[in-house]
Every structure is written in structure tokens, then in C-alpha cells.
Amino acid sequence: MKAERPRHIGARIQRFEDIRLLSGSARYIDDIRLPDMLHLNFVRAETAHANILEVDTSGLADLDFPTWVFTGKDTAGLSMKAHQDYPEMQYSEQPLLAEGKVRFVGEPVAVVLAEDAYKAEDAAELVFVDYDPLPVVGNMAQARDPESTPLFEGWNGNVIVQRQMKGGDLETAKAQAAHVIRRTYRTQRQAGVPMEGRGVVASFDKATRVLTVWSSTQMPHLVRTYISEELGLPESRIRVVAPDVGGGFGVKGQVFADEILIAWLAMQTGRPVKWIENRREHLIASIHARDHEHTLEAYVSADGRLLGLTADITVDNGAYSTYPFTSAGEPGMVGKVLPGPYDFQAYEATFRAVATNKCAIGTYRGVARPSAVFSQERLMDDIAAELGLDPVEFRLKNIIRQFPYRNVLGFTYDPGSYAEALEQIRELVANDVAEAKASHSCAKTRIGVGIACFIEQTAHGTPDFTRRRVPIETGYIAARLDMSPDGEVTIDLGLQNHGQGLETTMAQVAADALGIGPENVFVRHGDTMTTPYSVGTWGSRGGPLGGGAVHIAATKIADKLRAIAGHLLQAKPDQIELSDGKASVRDNPGSFIEIRKLARIAQRNVEQLPEGMTPGLEAHASLDGPADGSYANAVHAAVVEIDIETGKTKLRRFVVVEDCGTILNPLVVDGQVRGGVVQGIGSAMFEHFIYDEECQPLTTSFADYLMPLAPEIPNIEVHHIETPTPLTPLGAKGLGEGGAIGPAAAIANAVANALGVSVASTPLNTNAVWKLAQHIRDAN
Amino acid sequence: MIDITLEVNGVTKTLQVEPRRLLADVLREEFRLSGVHIGCAHGACGCCTVHLDGTPRLSCLTFAAQCDGASIRTVESIGGPNAEHMLQQAFKSEHGLQCGYCTPGFIMTLVPFVEEMVGQKRIPDDAEIREAMSGNICRCTGYHGIVAAVRKAVGTGLESGV
Amino acid sequence: MRPASFEYHRATSLEHALELLAEFGEDGRPIAGGQSLVPMMNFRLARPGHLVDINKLPLNSIESDGQMLRIGALTRHIAYFDNPLIARHFPAFLDAVHYIGHPTIRRNGSIGGSISHADPTAELAAVCVLYDAEIIARSTAGERRIRATDFFLSAYVTALEPGEMVVGVELPVPPSSSTGSFIELAERSGDFATAAIGVSIEFSSGRITRAAIVCSGADLVPIRAREAEDFLQGKPLDAAEASEAARLFATSIDPVDDHIASADYRRGLIGKLTQRAIEAACNRALDK
Fold first, then answer.
1. Which chain A residues are within 8 Å of B18, Cβ to Cβ?
2. Nearest chain C Cα distance for residue A712, angstroms
3. Where are the domains of chain C?
4. Do domains A18-26+476-623 and A289-462+626-779 have the same CATH topology?
5. What pLDDT, in 10s, does the model give residues C43-59?
6. Over 90: is that where the pLDDT of C238 sits?
7. What is the largest CA-CA distance in chain A?
8. Does any CB of chain C come closer than 8 Å to the CB of residue B109?
9. Are residues B137 and A30, on separate chains, in Cβ contact within 8 Å?
10. How many Cβ pairs within 8 Å bridge chains A and B?
């Protein structure tokens, strides 16, 4: 059955979820309160690498209020196991509470529960841990030294995994190359840092043996599955609820040891248990991201064609492997995506993750791609500079223009607008480029323009995870729709909405398929009791796969509505059009019946249904992503103004041309792009988790971990090209992460352009830029 | 424990609190005002901003004990359950929020600014708007929609002659 | 991240506050805006047993007798913006206030709290050192006037004794033929400075007759650039000598090298900001 003419998809509809968020009536994890609830406070490791000699909890006996205390001895055997099925990978388990050894500052060693959060914090101060320090593994070089102290027993050194991926004939590319350009690029440790930290509340009902866990998570179903496997409780008896979630950005896109621990504690104590992460804990012990070093070598023909590329990729993974994307996920992603939007057919990447005594690396918006694109796009500029070519011209010479395109690793790219986006951005910043050139003889203030051109594999389906043998295992999203007798629709959505506007965009999709208004669609999500099993919200799949699943399920209901309407209006079902709340006969607008009447007939006045038709208007659909995903593309341009004498760098303009296929709601799409860009600006210029030589974290508050504030940020200009993909039902590609992928590269290229140097690393804070401008000061 | 009397969003209540209880916690726990959000608990993000005797104040840097006899406003009082204040409506139309966690703090910081600009009968430039919100961190929107919302709300205020 | 227990006392008069502080000694702390103290308490890095709330005391005024400007300890940072005495006589002070935190901090933070906290790069501490302020401290034993350069002993360490609190700050009012400027560089707006320079000059017939330069970021407390100040005396206002004064100062300092900034950068930055602040002050002088 053909889809109805879209009326709501693509419309700039204001979000339905806004009112509760604006009025203060939203319910976040800290708003969950249960009778008899205990508050949890962690005792966390203060030493990065040490054997635990003793955990002394005797001080708690002197308190005048009741406490409960648990250590690694109590939780022995319970752990997070995040194993990627690679034979050469060195496996580690993360105990729920440290057993015998701590491996990073912030690792939970014990928990103290009390009936009040302030008192729980008082009590936790009375737990004393005696450590016998071990040598720390503090950086990539130390971790790659075979003599370094292994973080885990039975390990050989601290390289967790090292693998290769390759395609094409590299030897020929090397032989034909007129230029070989080799560079090393570094991107720093950072994280998503949502404004709401993490938090977990768990309650076990002895009567029904049902465990309910509220968690500020992006993936409630996976939390349920892991709790079930680790605690041996059937999934049918576990309900995981993600209430309103105050930002995720991938940080909340893993299953955490504390989610299992708190569920276990609720069962052990028989009381509800609540933990609200504090900001220091969040900054040292939730999830970090990036921390990459890439050495790239490009082989380029005399006429500026990219012939081949080799890459050596290292990620400082920190101490533990995270579930479900594992330690291999981050460096493997770099290897996978480095070929990018350019046409070359010889490639070899060696990637490795190494273990250090730091917080574990996990996902953050873009997952490895901001680092990969930083290196890829810095390299493109460095090659262009070496060859004396204009950076945009050089890219256009190598950009992929024919689709579908099979890349060097065998991934098929669906149609995009790579060259158009580049050409469009060239126009948009032409005046800035001229102004920049004119400034390059100035010793005091320089302007630079940088661009970053990239593609993003989005909405990748199960085969992509099977290939990587990663515990996420699958990538589908499911939705269940129900039209009630009054004609109102409920969507129970497998995605979790934490700012993406899904309560609005999914309603738009359903409304178009059903011929009703989006305001008549209520989207529920985040509760495993009501929503169909799905992998959660991550990997830029909400629009394409969630939207696709909603569309398919809604179309099933629409088909049934057409059948009923056809029966009542004496027309064939395929002559019935659903629109504006009515089912009408095509070319006979006087012959119609209201959809809400059909809904009533389907469930209340069932005697009017066609013979043999079962009552009800429900449908379920699940949609897996395309095997290779759908590739969104974008070009980012940054214009910077640098004070050569102080290093102060002002971001004058930031321009985006992006193509995410069909746009479901431009208000939401622009918001996602802009938000991502500003996080990317933070990555490029401000944010950096720093450890000292003993692996003590130095950035433990918002006075040290510097996220962009409003005055540093320009308005973000966003332009769209729409190339719908044939691979998803609505033609939508993923777009949630893209904004964050380009800024580090674009800003670094702008700084390089302004200063006439290569830029090898981020963050480009004032000190770093000042250092890069040394030659200009010296010359004057 | 000490006795304090607070007038919060028009409701006066006398209660006993430990001196160390943060105003943010007392508003959340004793007054059940879920719109008061704690983002950092060290005065660096603006999420917990409320009005204390008419002035924006970080409720994570304030002890409830200090507020005896004070009048406090939280986001719940600004535009009611339907968020009807012109600034809240502008946040909605200009997409000035995504996850919503920082939003009450922004509203409480910016309502007095919008009123001040309307009082001065002028639309502030972007730099002024951004400076006015420089103590609030939003991790979702990139600030763009918030700046647009402030501009729009001031415009609405000027048109309606409030 | 919630404070340890303490007892709360609301002072009803200055005498009452001083009696309470005398009683509690090192275990007592006055609290005004709380913008510096409470974060430390929430991290449990500060854990006073007694807080003496001084917000109701009448210490919230800016007054001048023509010779001295007296600022009450509870004066909120925002009050300086529309104060004509500050604008007329203390341009570097007014410049500096723009760099303090953000609007909510400026509305609630007080000068007494800021200087008692003694963050090494706090703007008002630098202003006090620049203008040769005297910090007026009171205890039950009486009043002590402490020169700003003697008040700030190290990062977060002041000359205040247990039982003593800041009640005000006095700044000598510069002559009418004077001006100044304050320039700061921070990673983001409102952050504590990587470095900041304040300059105050007196001038006559196109020449500098007296110069004061303060720097935050070179040491654990704001320091004066005495050699550069002496050098500028008698120099013309065309600022040709600013870079030499800056060089003199920059080569004399030994800034810390840490994860926030390298020593080289700090030195280079301080030199450049010094030059710019002198130039800005001279330009203002020429405009007068």
C-alpha cells in the first residue's frame, strides 16, 4: 500500500515533550522516591593501582544511625564481562566492587547505605582502605612496554587487543606514489558529561519477585538483560525504567557495574536503594572517551590523487572494557571509518587498545569518529599544503561521486551529496577565505578558515555487529502501536528519548501513515514493561530505524483501517485515503468516514467489521538497520581569529552543510546538529581530562573540566541537502551524532590555516595555540 | 536542627532542618519541587538557580537555614503547569531545550534579564544575551535556540507592552 | 557532595558576630554570599564546625570622604557597576569586575568573602593589591588594618587570625589626573584567570608621575611589578615604553608550570598583558 502524502513529516512542529520540561514537572532519576529507601554512597579508590590490604568498616559501629556496608568480598564473583569474541583479545572482568586490587582512581571499593543521603556520605568517610601501591601504567607508551606491570593476572603486557584490517593493493599504491606523507595526530581524553549525572534506584518486591530498576540510561532493555544474566533472575521478573533522562551523549549508552550492584543490593537488603552520582564521581569514574593516537601514511600521485593509506591506531582504553561495545570498539571504529568520503582502493590499518590505570573509555557522541575525522581531515590539509593545492580542490579531486560506492574495506555507501556539500560550503565561506588570506601577513591577529568533510555510518544493522563479534550483537529498533476506540494512538517505542524529540518526531511519522494529527499520538518509551525489546538510543538510529519501525507498524494499522472503511463505504481498500482524521474514497471526497469512528468499530462495534476480520487495531514492527548502515555526510567550516600574542582564539563562524536524507522535523534536526557542533567545539578547544604521573585525575570539577559556555560560541549556521536513502523506509539517515564529528578537524584546520603550521593534536586551548604561533612571534 | 519559615511559590511553611541542608535539597525534598535540578553541586552550572527574594541565586550554594523568612520562587511558579510565561513559550518555539535538565536554571536566570530588557524597551544583542547566561551550562542545544528564545521573548514583551 | 555537619548562627550585630567567631576560633567561619566557601564545603574540603551568617550586618556600603573609599565587606560585586565613585576614580577596578564569574555570582558574591577566600587569581584580590588597599579586620580584640600586600600570604591563605573577620576594605582615592585598566585572559568567560594585569597611573603634563601594576597568575598571590612601576615613572604617556616595562616585569617572574599552562606561556602572556594594560591606561590618560 502506498504511503499517504506526507503532511507532518518534514514539518517544523514544536515538541510535545517541552511543556513538562519547561514547567519543572518532568521526572528525572533523582525524582524517584520510594518508602523505606536507602541512600548509597560509594567508597572509591584514591590510588590508581594498588593491592587492597584491608577495608576497615569498624568505624561505622560508632554512628548513631543505622548503616549497611558491602565490599568486594560480599559481591565476589559478580562482575561486568565485556568480551569481544576476538581470539587475541586479553579479557578482563570488572568486579562490581574491587576485589583485592584497584585499577583506577574512582573505582568503587565499598558501598555504605543509610536512610539519608547526607548521612550515607558521612558514613562513607569512616571506611578506611589500606592500599599497597603498585607501579602505574600511565600512558600509551608505558602500556605498550612489554615490561609494564600487567593490570590483570595472567595478562601478557597491557595491550588489550591488536588487529588489522585491510583492502586493496597497497604495494602498487606505494610504488605509484609520487608523494608519501606521514603524520601522527592525537586527540585528548574527554567525555559527553550530560548536565544530569547518572543515577540508579532499585526495588525488589518479595511478593511477586519482581525487581524494578530505574536508571538514567539510554538502553533499558540491555540493562535488563545484563541484570538477568548476572543475577540469575528471569527477564520477565525484571523491569527497567529510564525516566526522563537529562542528557546522554553516549555516556549513558553502556551497562554499568553499579546498575547491577544496586539491583543486587535492593535484593540483599530488602529495601529500595538509591544512588545519585555526584559530579566528581561523574568526572572521574563514569565514562571517558577518545584518547587516541593515529599515525597515518598517505600515498599520493603526482597529480594529487590519493592512492592508498596506512594507519596505526592506538587508544588509551583505561582500566576496564565497557559493555556492550568493549575496548576493541573504539580503535576498531577508527580503522573502519578512516577511508571516509574519498575514493581510493588500497588501505591497511593496525589498531590496538591498551590498558592504563585510568577511567574506562566508552562511547561519546560520534564514537571514535571525531578522532578519526580529525586525523583524516588534518591529513588532507597537510597533503594539500605539501602539494601546494587548495584544500577544497584537493578534496574535490578525491571525493566519491558515484553511488552506490563500494569502499576499500567492502562497505557500500548509499547515495549522498559529498561533492555538492563541499562546493556549497566553499561558497558560504568564500569571503572568510579572502579575509583570512589577507590577514596572513599580520603579526598580531590572524584569521583562519578550516573545513572538515566527512561521512558517518549510521543506523548500521545486525551484520555490522556480527562482523565485529561485539556483545551488542544486534541493532534493531521495535515499536508497538495501538489505536484505542477513541481514535487516539499510543506508540510504545523501543528507543529512549533523552532530548532527541522522539515524542514528537515519532508522532509525526505515525500521524502521516494514519491520516491523523501528531497531537493524537502519545509516545511512551524507556520502560521495559511497556515497550518492545530494542537496543536503545545510540548509534544515530532513532530517526531512520525508530521512525522506520513506527512507519511500518502504523502502516499495518492503516491497512486495516482502509479495509474497514472500504467495507463500510463500498470501495476497495486501495481506493481509501487516510487524511485529516478521515478515511475517504479517492476522487469521491463526499464519501468518507471519520477515523475515530473506524477505531470504535474495530474495537467496540465489531459487528460492523468485514466478515472474518479480528477486532483490534494493534501492530508491532521491528526494523534492523542496513548491513553496512546508511551513510550521512556533512562538511563543517570554522573561521577562527587568533591573537598571536596571547593565543586567545575566537571562533567567528561555524557553518555546517549536512545531508541526513529525509528530514523528519527541521526544528529537531537543526537542534541536534547545533548541539553536536558545540560539543565538538568543546572537544576542539576546551575539554580535557588530565591525569598526573601517578594517574591521579586533575580535572575533577567544572572549574577544571571546561565545557563551552554561551559567550564562547557563535550562532551555528546550518544548511541542508536532502538525499533520501533507499535503505530505510522514510529515506532518513541518522543525524544525532554528526554535529560532534567535524568541529575538532575544522577548527584545527582553521588554526593551521591561520598560523601556517600543521596541527597535530587537540585541545587547541590558548596555551596550545600560543605555542603553535611561536614562529610568527619569533619572526617579529 | 533549627526552625525556619520559608515562603515558596506563595506557600508558607515552617520546618525543622539541619543547618547543613542545601536550599536545593530542601526545595526538592520538603517542598517536592522537582524543577530544582542539581547539576554540579559546586556552583558552576546554573541548573539549580532559583529566586531568593527576587534575585537569581544558586540553591546548591545556599543553606536553607540562611533563608529563614525569605521568599523563594522556583520554575514551577513562573508559568504554571503549562509553562505559559513568554520566555517558556519562546524556548518551545525556538527549540531552546532538548533534555530539559538545565532548562529550569536557564529560565530562572533569564526571566529577570528579559524583564529588565523589556523595562529598558530594547532588544539586547547576542553578546549581551550570551553574557546573561554565562553562568549556565547547556550541553544539548549549543545555546543557539536559547539565544533566539530570549530575543523572541523580549520582542513579545515589548509588543504586548508588559 | 554535601557538606559535613555544622552549627549555624545568625549574627544580629557586628559585635555578636565577633563574639561568636571568638568563641569558635579556628572552627568558626563567617559566611556571606557563600560563593567560594560553600563549594569547598560541598566537596568537604572545608568543614567548619560553626558558620556565622553575617548577611544581616550593615556592612553593605560604598562610601568616600574624598581621601579614602571604604567598601563594606558585604558589598556584592554587582554594586560596582553603577557606582559613580568606582567609575570615576577606579577604572581598573571597574574593568576587573566585568571579569568576575557570571551574573549570578556577581549578584551574590561579596568582597569580604572573595578576599578572605584568597584564590590566587581572584580579581578583587588583585584590585586591592593594585590600589594599595587596607583590609580592615575586626575581632573582639579590636580592629586591625592590614595592607593588601601583607594580607594575601599564599593561595587560599590570608593574614586573618582565628576569630577575625574582614569588615571592609579601604582604598586611597587616586588624584583626579589618574586612570587605569585591567586586562585578564581566561580560557572561558568568567573562569579564574590564567593571568590578569591591573595598571593604575597618575600623570601630569603628558608624563606618568606614578604607576602601579599588579599581576595575578605569576605567583600564588597577586604581586606588584615594582621594577616596571619605577621604570614607568616620568615616561611619556604615548606608551612607547610599555613593552620595555612589560619585558622588565616578565623576566623577573618565575611562574608555575602545570597542567593548566606552561611557565613559558604564563611568562609570555603576562608580558603581553602587562604591555596592553599599560597601553590601555595611557590611552585613557590621553583621552582625559
1. 118
2. 7
3. 7-53, 62-172, 178-287
4. yes
5. 999 999 999 999 999 99
6. no
7. 92
8. yes
9. no
10. 176
Whether the per-residue pLDDT at A5 is higher than 70: the answer is no
Task: Provide the CB-side half-sphere exposure for A42 (13 A, CA).
Answer: 28
Three state DSSP letters for A173-193: HHHHCCEEEEEEEEEEEECCC
User: What H or E segment, with its residue span, contains residue A253?
Assistant: none
Which chains sit next to A, with 3 or more Cβ pairs under 8 A? Answer: B, C
Query: How does residue A2 score in pLDDT terms, banded at 50, 70 and 90?
Result: very low
Is the pLDDT score of A150 beyond 80?
yes
Question: 3-state SS of A264-313?
Answer: HHHHHHCCCEEEECCHHHHHHHCCEEEEEEEEEEEEECCCCCEEEEEEEE
Containing B148, the helix (H) or strand (E) segment is: helix B144-160
Same fold: C62-172 with C178-287: no
Nearest to B20 among C1, C3, C10 (CB): C3
Q: Using the beta-carbon criterion (under 8 Å), do C104 and B46 form an inter-chain contact?
A: yes
Q: Does the structure show a pLDDT above 80 at A6?
A: no
What CATH class has C62-172?
Answer: alpha beta
CB contact (8 A) between residue B135 and residue C43: no
Of B18, B61, B63, the CB nearest to C39: B61
User: Which run of H or E residues covers position A443?
Assistant: none
Say whether A702 and B137 touch across the interface (CB within 8 A): yes
pLDDT tops 60 at residue A3: no
Is C172 within 8 Å of C128 (Cβ atoms)?
A: no
Q: What's the rounded Cα separation, in Å, for the pair A245 and A252?
A: 9
B59 touches C: beta carbon within 8 Å? no
Residue with cell 546522554: A248
For chain B, which chains pass the contact test of at least 3 CB pairs under 8 Å?
Answer: A, C
Superfamily of domain A32-134+198-245+252-285: Aldehyde oxidase/xanthine dehydrogenase, a/b hammerhead (3.90.1170.50)
Residues in chain A closer than 8 A to B79 (CB atoms): 22-23
pLDDT exceeding 70 applies to what percent of chain A?
Answer: 99
- A289-462+626-779: what fold? Aldehyde Oxidoreductase; domain 4 (3.30.365)
Could you give the percent of chain A with pLDDT greater than 90?
96
**CB interface of C with B, residues 114-173, below 8 Å:** none
**CATH no. of A18-26+476-623:** 3.30.365.10
Q: Judged by CB atoms within 8 Å, which residues 51-110 of C form the interface with B?
A: 51, 53, 55, 101-105, 107-108
Measured between alpha carbons, how far is C138 from C152 in angstroms, rounded to an integer? 17
Alpha carbons B79 and B100: distance in angstroms, whole number: 16
3-state secondary structure chain C: CCCCCCEEEECCCHHHHHHHHHHHHHHEEEECCCCCHHHHHHCCCCCCCEEEECCCCCCCCEEECCCEEEEECCCEHHHHCCCHHHHHHCHHHHHHHHCCCCHHHHHHCEHHHHHHHCCCCCHHHHHHHHCCCEEEEEECCEEEEEEHHHHEEECCEECCCCCCEEEEEEEECCCCCEEEEEEEECCCCCCCCCEEEEEEEEEECCEEEEEEEEEECCCCCCEECHHHHHHHCCCECCCCCHHHHHHHHHHHCCCCCCCCCCHHHHHHHHHHHHHHHHHHHHHHHHHC
Which chain C residues have a beta carbon less than 8 Å from that of A767? 194, 260-262, 265
ipTM over 0.95: yes
**CB-closest option in B19, B22, B49 to C2:** B22
Question: Which of A44, A116, A198, A646 would you mutate first to test chain C, the one with the most C CBs within 10 A?
Answer: A646
* For chain B, domain boundaries: 2-74, 82-160
Contact status of B42 with chain C (Cβ, < 8 Å): yes
State the fold for domain B2-74: Ubiquitin-like (UB roll) (3.10.20)
